[in-house]
Amino acid sequence: MRALMDHGFTVFGQFVSYAEFIGQVFALVVVYLAQRRTLWTWPVQLVSVTLLFVVYLSAHLGGTAARQVVIALITVYGWWAWTRRRDPVFGVVVRRGTLRERIAVAVVFVVGTTGFALVLDALDASWAPWPDAAIFVGTVLAFALQGLGLVEFWLVWLAVDAIGVPLQLHSGLYFSAAVYSVFAVLVVRGWIDWNREAKRAALAATR
User: Fold this and answer.
1) How far is CA 147 from the centre of its chain?
2) pLDDT tens across 104-136, in order?
3) 97 in Cβ contact with 148 (< 8 Å)
4) What pTM, to 2 d.p., does this model score?
């Protein structure tokens, strides 16, 4: 792992370690695979979070590093959950969240961000505790909702991207910032595809 952190390449005068490059490229692949509802989403995610944990820890972003650990745990759950909700033709079965579920997600995001930001600030674990905490909580929520097959996880990812791009830029992680920008495009596409699939699944259930 140290070799991947110490070696890399330079883009526009900015050093990009192989750990950051591979971790973020795999993260992009995860979005692509999730859009297609394939089980390969989860093992690729495990490789990505392992690499990015080291990257963010070295950048003094404790919240963003800690989220990689939580994502790894949720990834194991998501992998298991998707194997239990497979459609032989269309892949994992997805649905839209209820109004109560959507409100719960919003409350957890706000309360979770506030609480975790205070913890990061108290421990001096991040130079930007509030956006760092928001990314942590948003990412955990997104993967949890993805594991449950809820379409709304894509919207949570959009919020994470909007916060993540400026945070990555200010942290000197320019390649990661560029990847977050690409994420936004893929997320919009994923949102459209999962909505279409949710409608098909809901229609099939009423027949």
Assistant:
1) 12
2) 999 999 999 999 999 989 988 888 899 989 988
3) no
4) 0.75
Chain Cα centroid distance, residue 194 = 16
- Check residue 52 and give its pLDDT: 92
Sign of CA dihedral 164, 6, 9, 22: negative
Closest by CA to 131, choosing from 155, 174, 163, 108, is 163
Around Cβ 170, how many Cβ atoms within 10 Å?
A: 12
And the tokens for 70? 């939580």
Question: What CA–CA distance (Å, rounded) separates 117 from 57?
Answer: 16
Cα 6 from Cα 198, distance rounded (Å): 44
Alpha helical stretches, state H, 59-173: 62-84, 99-123, 129-148, 153-170
Pick from 142, 6, 137: which is nearest to 64 by CA?
Answer: 137
